[in-house]
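Here is one chain, start to finish.
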Amino acid sequence: MSLDTPQLPALGILANLDQDDVKDFAAYGAFKSVNVGTVIIEQGQSHGKLFMIISGLLEARRTDQGDNIHLGQLQAGEWMGEVDLFDPLEAVCSVVSIEESQYWVITRENLEEFINNHPASGILLLIGLATTLSRRIRNVTSKFVEQTELNKNLRVSL
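Its structure:
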């Protein structure tokens, strides 16, 4: 698999940046290609990186008490790794390519360098990251509330 003139699309956290800033930002990271079955993020390991999927399809999965749990698929234009970027402990799940895929990755150190060198764009980028994190927290919270209501209803019916 080859990367033909890779570019970051102005999507998600990059949506408010102009094209020149997106190109500048891309230079702080690296474009990668992976084959089917490649583990990009490994559950339990810290990586401290932010990833954008350029093409292909990835799967988030978690192993818990011997069970493999499918958490969802990630596709072109989606971001991942933002939690470990800011809180580098252990990844809560693995991300594995289920198609030949291309992605772009940046370390926290390089992200901080971009922000220092391009403060106005860096602020817009951080707002985009905060928005993404907020949406994901809201989604998880909604699922937690739904599960709590379901459990409550089960107890009442017993």
